[in-house]
Design a protein that fits this description.
It holds the Pfam family Response_reg. The chain has helices at about 15-25, 35-45, 60-70, 90-100, 110-130, 160-170, 180-190, 195-215, and strands at about 5-10, 30-35, 50-55, 80-85, 100-105, 135-140, 140-145, 150, 155, 175-180, 220-225, 230. It has about 240 residues and is α/β, with parallel strands linked by helices. Helix 1 crosses helix 5 and helix 3 (about 60-70) runs parallel beside helix 4 (about 90-100).
């Protein structure tokens, strides 16, 4: 898989260069545009994975760009992060209502923007995998997304809904570290008032079920000390 491509759109060159530098440092491919019409041209003719879009743009405003994208079936699911001025709360709300996935207010922390980019792309990849694949297979594990069941060596193993979600997210992200906070947000929701020990307890249960039912006797889920968990990449 090639680098994920991000389109950065802002009429302030210094902001574009700042965002571009920080995203490229994280390994992303970055293309840029300085007005709304140029942004739409790139979205329509290039394979863009995420759009960072300023609201105040020449030729075509950010809200119009967002509306146009969401009304075009071929590109309607493109993730969009909007850049907004701090005092423009009405525009932020309107942007979200039009379908922006997130917004960042100016002046912003490049580190925060990169973190939001990673989170949104990760979610977009999860959603795409779920739409494209009815079944996830890793080693002897088969996760049927339609039947909501898990098989180990073709034998069904009972997992609770939360355990199913945990194993699915880890398997989809094979080789990547998922933090406890990320798992907590994705599975229990932003407003869940538990703590990360909840994740540890559920991971322990998932591991136990895998161990009890595995023919290959593999340790599928690795602990990354102080960070979270990683599903082992299998050769």
């Amino acid at each position: 898989m090639g680098k994920e491509k991000i389109l950065v759109v802002d009429d302030e060159e210094n902001i574009v260069e700042l965002v571009k530098f920080n995203l490229e440092k994280e390994g992303y491919e970055v293309v840029v545009a300085y007005d709304g019409q140029a942004a739409l041209d790139k979205v329509n003719h290039e394979e863009i994975n995420l759009l960072i879009l300023d609201l105040m743009l020449p030729k075509l405003g950010g809200l119009d760009v967002c509306r146009t994208i969401r009304n075009n079936q071929e590109i309607s699911e493109l993730p969009i992060i909007m850049l907004t001025a701090k005092e423009k709360e009405v525009d932020r709300v309107l942007g979200l209502e039009l379908g922006a996935d997130d917004y960042v207010t100016k002046p912003f922390s490049p580190r925060e923007l990169v973190a939001r980019v990673k989170a949104i792309l990760r979610r977009a990849n999860f959603d795409k995998l779920e739409k494209d694949d009815e079944q996830i297979e890793v080693g002897e594990i088969k996760i049927d997304l339609n039947k909501y069941e898990i098989l180990l060596s073709d034998k069904e193993v009972n997992f609770t809904p939360k355990e199913f979600q945990l194993l699915k997210l880890l398997a989809i992200s094979s080789g990547k570290v998922l933090t406890r906070n990320f798992l907590l947000r994705e599975i229990w929701g932003y407003n869940y008032d538990g703590d990360t020990r909840t994740v540890d307890v559920h991971i322990r249960r998932v591991r136990q079920k895998l161990k009890e039912n595995s023919v290959e006797d593999l340790e599928y889920i690795e602990t990354v000390r102080g960070v979270g968990y990683r599903f082992k990449e299998l050769e």
